[in-house]
Amino acid sequence: MLRLAMATNEETFERVRGSLADRGIAVDHVQTKERALRVSRGGNREAAKGADGEFDGFDAGFVYPSRLMEGAVVDARLSVPWVNDREAVLTSRNKAGVLAALDEAGLPTPRTTLVSNPVDEAVVAEAVEPFSYPVVVKPNSATRGVGVATAGDLDSLLGVVDYLNLVHDYRATGDKSYLIQEFLPDARDYRAMVVDGAYVGAVERELPADAVEEGRWKHNVHRGAAATGVDLPDRARELAERTAEVLGIDYLGVDILTTDGRLVINETNARPTVDAATKYEPDFYDRLAGLIERTATRG
Which of 51, 85, 154, 285 has its CA 20 to 30 A from that of 62? Predict the structure, then answer.
């Protein structure tokens, strides 16, 4: 039986292990964070090897750890190929880089400008001139809707930027960029899944009615939205598949917004949460198992 090292033990881990076991793939969790990791084993490598036994016997990894520093150590210890390696995770995490690549390939995206701090307020004011208010302001590499805000006028925008400047002023902050993006009111929010180049299902993420009445608009599941399985039209499926092709990522969540007849690709996620199997196409796990097996052969 092929053995898969999984760098998460949250929802996806519990949901996939049974279905993958049915297809000859044993899934085990490898803890990559909130622990001590042996980096150097000293002169006697054989004597120290027993301490690293948790990393032995794997054929592939799924997917590269979210914390890249710890991930590099675990990667060295496991010494296996990954379904979505470090490069794939970094590519998807760079929201501006993804949108630039997709726009260059002719795929529809929201109007977006990247601001790289530090800049004067005049630069921010000039950057927002082509937009209509309200605008969306978001960190370039955050996930789960963290730090995303709307601004209804220039003063509000500069106030949000002030908070970003406080964060970016910290010397150890790696990514000192953020996006100004057009706001798409009343947009429906879909997460399409692509495995090994093929669309394999989608969910619509929707806030409860009372949350919408309170003025909330972020459709992140981690912020209370519900994910319901949906059957996307052919055009949306094609956009999801083309996105994965352009980025060169085998296992990808593609966030698509639709409003006023527009379909736009908003973000991607190379570490997407797997939802219940009933929300995907019948061949979802067959395709996922095939991708894992093909990845393992590279090792």
Answer: 51
Beta-bridge mates of residue 116:
177
pLDDT in tens, 180-200: 999 998 899 999 999 999 999
Residue with tokens 């794997």: 58
- In order of start, what are the domains of the chain with their CATH numbers? 2-84 (3.40.50.20), 87-108+184-270 (3.30.470.20), 111-182 (3.30.1490.20)
The string over 242-261, giving b where at least 16 C-beta atoms fall within 10 Å of a residue's C-beta and e elsewhere, is bbbebbebbbbbbbbbbeee
d(CA 189, CA 187): 6
Percentage, residues of the chain above pLDDT 70: 88
Q: Which residues contact 240 (CB under 8 A, 6 or more apart)?
A: 192, 193, 194, 199, 202, 232, 252, 254, 256
For CA atoms 102, 184, 229, 224, the dihedral sign is: positive
Q: Is residue 108 reached through a cis peptide bond, with omega within 30 degrees of 0 on the bond before it? A: no
Maximum alpha-carbon separation in the chain: 66
Q: How far apart are CA 134 and CA 152, in angstroms?
A: 4
> 135 is written with which tokens?
């605008």
Which uninterrupted H or E stretch holds 134?
none
For residue 44, give the 3-state DSSP assignment. coil
Task: Please classify residue 233 by burial: count the beta carbons closer than 10 Å to its beta carbon, then call 0-12 exposed, 13-18 middle and 19+ buried.
Answer: exposed
* Residue appearing with tokens 């760098």: 7
Cα gap 184→161, rounded to integer Å: 20
Q: What is the pTM (predicted TM-score) of this model?
A: 0.90
User: Measured at the alpha carbon of residue 154, what is the angle toward residues 153 and 160, in degrees to the nearest 5?
Assistant: 95
- Quick check: 176 and 168 in contact, CB under 8 A? yes
- Give the tens place of pLDDT for each residue, 101-118: 999 999 999 999 999 998
Orientation angle between helical segments 86-93 and 95-104, nearest 10 degrees? 80
For 151, the 3-state DSSP assignment is strand
